Amino acid sequence: MKKCDPKDFEERCLELLLKIPIGKVTTYKEIAHALGCRGYRAVGQSLNRNKKLISVPCHRVVKSNGEVGGYALGKNEKIGLLLQEGVLVDGGRISKWPLPMHRFSD
Predict the structure, then answer these.
(1) Alpha carbon 55 to chain centroid distance?
(2) Measured between alpha carbons, how far is 19 from 95 in angstroms, rounded to an integer?
(3) 9-42, pLDDT tens digit by residue?
(4) Residues 36, 2 contacting (CB under 8 angstroms)
(5) CA angle at residue 47 from 96 to 95, to 5 degrees?
(6) E strands along the chain, which residues?
(7) Confidence check: pLDDT of 75 > 70
(8) pTM of the predicted model, to two decimals?
(9) What residues are labeled active site?
(10) What's the CA gap between 38 and 13, in Å, rounded?
(11) Residues forming beta bridges with residue 25, ordered by sequence position
(12) Burial class, 97, CB count within 10 angstroms (exposed 0-12 / middle 13-18 / buried 19+)
């Protein structure tokens, strides 16, 4: 994998979020791979700057181990949004992980 090109990186990350269907989640790693790089943390930083939290659904991005991870409005809000969309969360982790996983290569 190559190093991420910083040009338009953030915009490309946010565009990928729009492709995650309701009821599915993806990972920071999956987004980085879809962008052709290994910048998992850079993806997280880009999502943290998302100003359109609901319409550009960064709440649908979780850690590779199924943990919910952080969210600009707080972890409990992220869990609430995921539950509203039918993604089950138990103890701060996605239930039946990785079944609700969205992969961009599918």
Answers:
(1) 13
(2) 22
(3) 888 889 999 999 999 999 999 999 998 888 888 8
(4) yes
(5) 10
(6) 26-27, 61-62, 89-90, 93-94
(7) yes
(8) 0.88
(9) 58
(10) 13
(11) 101
(12) middle
- Residue 7 — very low, low, confident or very high, per pLDDT cuts 50/70/90? low
Q: Which residues contact 37 (CB under 8 A, 6 or more apart)?
A: 1, 2, 3, 4, 5
The region that residue 3 occupies, defined by phi over 0 for left and psi between -120 and 50 for alpha, beta otherwise, is beta
Residue 100: phi and psi, rounded to 5, are -85, 20
- In the chain, what are the domains? 9-94 (1.10.10.10)
Tell me what the pLDDT averaged over the chain comes to. Answer: 88
The dihedral through the CA atoms of 56, 21, 93, 42 has a sign that is: negative
